[in-house]
Amino acid sequence: MFQLLRMGQMSAKPGAIMWIIACHTICLALLAIFSMQYAFGAPADTRLPGPVSAIVERVIDGDTIAVRARIWLNQELRVNVRIARIDTPELTAKCIYERELAGKARDFVHNILYTDGQIEPVVWLSDIDHDKFGGRVLARVSGRTGEDIAQALVQAGLAQAYDGKKRTDWCRNLPAPDKGVTAGKIY
Question: How many alpha carbons fall within 13 Å on the CB side of residue 43?
């Protein structure tokens, strides 16, 4: 078409030519962007199955740890990991009962991970995905010996099964004084 315009066999308004060039440029740019997504890595919505080895730097709260994930030889990535499939009490809750439970959950996770005087405990991350709030990843976390941290928290009564929707109201569901917190299965 451009050759026909140059040879004078076809007439077009200058605005139409600019519109055609702009459309072609936009199409090429979009094609380049979407092709690079697959050339340089997996699509953003793809889950990483793992396992990925990670060194725990600190326990933030009952369901979040800060780690250095070993992603390649001599390559580590610092990231906060939210333990998948559970909800633990919040350290900043308004209710004192929830804050007390939150401290117990954090200490429980710390005690599981930092056994035998380990300075840098190793965990295994699997089913790694984006966290819905951003800034961290969501993953199943297993300790050095393979224990599922989420299941241990639930069995200890310090976490509830969580499907990503509405959080547990820890203060509304106070346990009976003699019975303790009810533990449940998350599978």
Answer: 3
pLDDT at 40: 44
Judged by phi (left if over 0) then psi (alpha if -120 to 50, else beta), residue 134 lies in: left
Cβ-based neighbours of 59, under 8 Å, separated by 6 or more:
65, 66, 106, 109, 110, 113
Q: Which two tokens stand for residue 57?
A: 């730097």
Amino acid of residue 171: C
Q: Spell out the SS3 assignment of 163-185.
A: CCCCCCCCCCCCCCCCCCCCCCC
Q: Which residues pair with 67 in a beta bridge?
A: 56, 79
Q: Report d(CA 186, CA 122) in Å as an integer.
A: 23
Give the integer Cα–Cα distance in Å for 77 and 71. 7
CA dihedral 74, 75, 81, 85 (to 10 degrees): -80
Position 37 confidence tier, pLDDT thresholds 50, 70, 90: very low
Confirm if 76 and 52 have CB atoms less than 8 A apart: no
Confidence of residue 186 (pLDDT cuts 50, 70, 90): very low
Give CA–CA dist 12/6, Å, rounded: 11
Q: Are 125 and 64 in contact (CB under 8 A)?
A: no
pLDDT tens for 92-111 read 988 899 999 999 999 999 99
Q: Residue 87: pLDDT band by 50, 70, 90 thresholds? A: very high
